[in-house]
């Protein structure tokens, strides 16, 4: 079926307006939803696409539908053109203008605080994906979109492109090497089992790219490493370390450079274990290194600021309890964060203590369940 502006899909509901992009997994159009009178984005898979493409297309829609977060692209509808035999499509929120971290590289290198705030939002979106026991597997600048909210000109980062997301029921099954060279974690390229820390690596590579202007590894170096791992006796089996961030961009503070290096560690157990732990470290950079108060996180508005603050602090508590030990600096950071989120100074100490106790109880309960 040949499509052009003015074509209508899904029984006269969505009218295509202009093509926004095209790739191996489909074409994205701006469209007008005639029923709800709003502009949307619609992704279409060409009729007759290979079976593997159809599978990835359907997986992307299912993965998006599983996650609810302000920092993940929202899906509205899915179906096929002209009945069950037509080309597949799904409808999602429109990012207008369509910008990604790849488009904003130059601006973000000149505004470090803005860059780190967007990285923090990326941890929130990816963390929401991980809480649904999925792994994105294709975290890179072009898949992290930045929307501009009309209210106050607020920037909101959105995780997009779930075509190769790993579902929980697939974790015990051998997986093919998927991802984008230069952003995919070493274990992805080696057909090894992966978990959420593969996305930590992907976000680390993204941060490196945005702040340094290029991927942490050249494609030819990665190809040589991969061939070496599969050719005994070649003598090239160690994953090449990335160059220090500060060598590529002297304006990046050592604290942030160290965070990126930890994300990019080839040894999985040396990376941040969760997106919450990574976000905690990035928020320290904003407040302690750059000396800038954190803007209140973009969670739903609540009549009770303390209730909203507890929700935001819960994830941070999970991060600081990674070793089940809370040092004074971590507790002080949480208290300061609580006040920034609207908790009264006189209540901050008590709220932080309660949130930490609840997080510890959840952690111990989860360990008993696994045992």
Notable features of this structure?
371 residues; alpha+beta; Phosphorylase Kinase, domain 1; Transferase(Phosphotransferase), domain 1; six-stranded antiparallel beta sheet; two-stranded antiparallel sheet; 12 helices; globular
Question: How would you describe this structure to a colleague?
Answer:
- With 371 residues, the protein is of the alpha+beta class.
- The chain folds into 3 domains: 8-92, Phosphorylase Kinase, domain 1, CATH 3.30.200; 105-289, Transferase(Phosphotransferase) domain 1 (Transferase(Phosphotransferase), domain 1, Orthogonal Bundle), CATH 1.10.510; 305-370, no CATH class.
- It is 42% helix and 13% strand.
- It has helices at residues 51-66, 105-109, 112-131, 186-189, 197-212, 219-229, 245-248, 254-263, 275-289, 305-320, 328-340, 345-370, and strands at 8-9, 14-23, 26-33, 38-44, 75-80, 88-92, 144-148, 155-159.
- A hairpin with a 2-residue loop joins β2 and β3.
- α3 packs antiparallel against α9 (275-289) and α5 crosses α8 (254-263).
- The longest helix is centred in the last third of the chain and has 26 residues, at 345-370.
- The radius of gyration is 22 Å and the shape is globular.
- The N and C termini lie far apart (55 Å).
